[in-house]
Design brief:
heterodimer, A: 437 residues, alpha/beta, 3 domains, 9 strands, B: 335 residues, 7-stranded mixed β-sheet, 4-stranded antiparallel β-sheet, 11 helices, globular
Chain lengths: 437, 335
């Protein structure tokens, strides 16, 4: 049956081998008719379905995507579908912020016995997609330049930088003198410095320009080659250290951590910061915790995101289209990120080419969605990606979307509690289900 | 007999070029805190003051970050190869900086050295550059160290310089510029010329060349490269960096071959399929960037591959860039 305009939707269904695929098979052997618009791609388990596959299907002409697997409790591999469910929750929240029409993305549990359900789901999805019309990704207009006034200069409270800087240099000196470390990774006049000599401890600085998250250097082979390290962290940076240790990327016991209490450096993240004081540092320098302000409640943390979400969906998409159109794919966002530590990034793999290497609209959307979702429940909100971007792309908003998803769905904030179970890699029987057919 | 143009008249000219169907690009405030060279949606978007330098460069209009070289289609009729768009649109870049314009003659040499690159040459021929002499500079600027200055005319077709009363003095430097502006080509400029005072010279390129020649293997590179995180922000915002990669995108039914920018600071830039990497560490990659700009390119083309714009340093998330590294080489005061 064809629509009046002749549009026949193409639907890609990623299904698991053990339940939904057999459900589809049963629909066939039982002679249950369903629209021929669906292309089934069989995978071992929904837990194996990368969100990038969804993006890929839509990139190459699908009008809608269905991801379907075994009912909770039925997974052939025990828990693949529980893991998948969590990822879908996070991914849906990300797509919402980007302004993607989530009516084109469907999830279902269909067992091997549910041939009829398969028939129903496919029929429903086909009809819905037919009504929505063809999906034309990357053709929506980009928002024109905002041409807003100049950025407001950061308001930095005159803290006692000087006194802390003196203490910092003395602490670094002590560590080097005692032979506890061979190198101190800290802030210098222009950027990071790597102090290996006692005479150079005077190069260490602490001021309002010390925004970088130095924990990114701990995994770099050139820095590791220098020997045992001490690293200077602010409260916000330290959250990355917690995550890196959790993910077995640094050995905390081999590391000396010099924590700097920080009243804020004027960045957007500082306005809603509740990590003013490092909690796990070996040496903590600077102001009393009380003087640095207490916790900021969750609503304030995501206020910026909530304001953005008030815009209609089409405007959100137009906003990100303009943002991503400026992306040069210099990968500064990835390189400055302490949590982006893969030896070879997905963006650099080409067998198969998961993400188009080109900095065109399609390739940029795929890259930024992959970057964000790979940091879901892992991003500590240090905003280094946003600071590093030469094109001024506000990646902070995407990170906030996933941070909010992790906090609202799972009560989890990356890098806050070293003992907490991670969001991705764990699951709960109570995870939200209402979006799954 | 110099000509003058007010800011308003300049915008009117930009509007007329847009009207005539040209692509007109210039500095645009794309959002609070970010000024980039970008196609002007309307003449009013042209930003003429309130910034030192856009965070990118004009090279993108002659050497796009992504350019389709050809496309293919496979169907019942066989394989069809298709040329990309027939001819690029006429384009005018308004408000370019002298350090942007000066990179174009460098790119001209590179793209016509062993093989005339049609893709580049066609865009270059369709491009006219209206340069705005610099009225201000910041601590990252060092054009005067590489033989240029705030009113340097290399690569420009028309030069505008602040006449001091909200208007610009106009000098058409090439036939292309004269045709665009509808005026005669101005006589050769008086030595010294107009424009604000540039930054103090910070180093001597010959000293840099000597250092890299004699210190290829030197701990300096390893130590200096420690902060480098290996992104491409420096190369991609540099007016003169021009490395590219060729990629195939598509499937069995159709697709494109395209060229995309590439950057020497990426570990993958020199990685061999065997796994061997001749530049295995960041120190070797940082050395390469300085080596190419100050020794290799001058050796081949007689000029330094750097116009002193300072974009590398402004955009580096780790405080590196040509000036910070080179200053140390020349034992000048660290900036």
């Amino acid at each position: 049956m064809s629509a009046p305009n002749g549009f026949e939707p193409k639907i890609v269904a990623y299904v698991c081998n053990w339940c939904t695929y057999l459900g589809a098979d049963l629909a066939g052997t039982a002679r249950l008719e369903y629209p021929a618009n669906v292309r089934i791609i069989r995978l071992p388990c929904t837990g194996r379905i990368d969100t990038n596959l969804v993006v890929k299907a839509l990139e190459i002409g699908a009008d809608a995507v269905l991801v379907s697997g075994c009912h909770p409790g039925d997974c052939h591999y025990s828990a693949g579908n529980y893991h998948a469910r969590r990822r879908w929750m996070l991914f849906r929240d990300l797509l919402e912020v980007v302004g993607f029409d989530t009516r084109r993305l469907h999830f279902s549990w269909i067992s091997a016995a549910e041939g009829r359900k398969f028939q129903q789901v496919i029929s429903e999805i086909t009809e819905q997609t037919r009504a929505l019309g063809p999906y034309r990704p990357y053709e929506s207009p980009a928002l024109p330049p905002a041409e807003e006034g100049v950025a407001k200069p950061p308001a930095v409270e005159e803290g006692n930088f000087e006194e802390s800087q003196r203490e910092l240099r003395a602490a670094a000196r002590r560590l080097l003198e005692e032979g506890k470390v061979k190198v101190v990774v800290g802030y210098g006049a222009r950027g990071p410095v790597f102090v290996t000599k006692l005479d150079d401890t005077g190069r260490l600085e602490w001021n309002a320009s010390c925004l970088a998250n130095l924990t990114v250097y701990l995994r770099r082979p050139e820095v590791r080659a220098l020997g045992a390290a001490a690293v200077v962290v602010k409260g916000c940076d330290e959250r990355a250290l917690v995550m890196l240790e959790k993910e077995s990327q640094v050995r905390r016991e081999e590391l000396q951590v010099i924590g700097l209490a920080c009243a804020g450096l004027g960045a957007p993240k500082c306005e809603v910061c509740d990590s003013h004081r490092p909690r796990f540092a070996d040496i903590t320098i600077g102001g009393a915790a009380a003087a640095l302000g207490g916790s900021t409640a969750a609503p304030a943390r995501y206020a910026e995101l909530e304001r953005f979400l008030e815009k209609p969906r089409e405007q959100r998409l137009a906003y990100w289209t303009a943002e991503f159109d400026r992306c040069l794919k210099c990968y500064a966002c990835r390189q400055v990120c302490p949590m982006c530590y893969c030896d070879r990034c997905l963006a650099e793999k080409n067998r198969p080419q998961a993400i188009d290497a080109s900095p065109h609209r399609k390739g940029n959307f795929a890259w930024h969605l992959a970057r964000a979702i790979h940091l879901a429940g892992r991003c500590v909100g240090c905003d280094e990606c946003t600071r590093a971007c030469p094109a001024g792309i506000d990646l902070r908003l995407l990170n906030l979307a996933l941070a909010r998803a992790a906090e609202t769905h799972f009560g989890y904030r990356a890098g806050m509690d070293p003992a907490a179970e991670p969001v991705v890699g764990a699951y709960s029987f109570q995870d939200q289900e209402d979006f799954i057919r | 007999m110099s000509q003058r143009v007010s800011k308003e008249e300049l915008r009117q000219r930009a509007a007329a070029w847009l009207e005539a169907g040209k692509m007109v690009a210039g500095p645009v405030r794309v959002k609070a805190g970010t000024v980039l060279y970008a196609p002007l949606p309307k003449a009013e978007s042209l930003l003429l003051e309130g910034w030192v330098r856009p965070a990118n460069s004009i090279k993108e209009f002659v050497f796009p970050r992504h350019e389709v070289l050809y496309s293919y289609r496979v169907d019942a009729a066989g394989i069809t190869l298709q040329e990309p768009e027939p001819a690029p649109r006429e384009q005018v870049i308004v408000g370019a900086h002298p350090c942007d314009a000066a990179a174009l003659p460098l790119l001209d040499k590179l793209f016509n050295w062993d093989y005339p690159d049609d893709f580049y040459n066609r865009r270059r021929a369709a491009t006219a550059v209206v340069t705005l002499a610099c009225a201000a500079h910041d601590e990252e600027c060092f054009c005067t160290s590489v033989g240029l200055g705030p009113a340097a005319e290399r690569g420009s077709d028309v030069m505008l310089s602040d006449a001091g009363d909200g208007a610009y003095e106009v000098r058409c430097l090439t036939e292309k510029g004269a045709a665009l502006w509808g005026a005669g080509v101005a006589p050769a400029p008086a030595e010294g010329g107009m424009g604000a005072a540039g930054p103090e010279p910070r180093f001597n390129p010959a000293e840099v060349a000597a250092f890299v020649r004699e210190h290829f293997e030197d701990p300096f590179w390893r130590e200096r490269a420690l902060p480098c995180l290996g992104c491409g922000a420096c190369a991609y915002t540099c007016p003169a960096c021009h490395c590219f990669d060729i990629v195939d995108e598509g499937n069995a039914r159709g697709g494109v071959r395209a060229r995309n920018w590439d950057a020497c600071q990426f570990p993958l830039f020199t990685a061999h399929a065997s796994g061997h990497n001749p530049r295995p560490a960041q120190g070797a990659r940082q050395r390469q960037r300085i080596y190419h700009k100050f020794l290799m390119f001058p050796g081949k083309f007689g000029e330094v591959l750097c116009t002193g714009c300072g974009n590398c340093a402004r955009n580096c998330p780790a405080g590196l860039g040509v000036l910070p590294v080179v200053s140390e080489i020349c034992h000048a005061e660290s900036v």
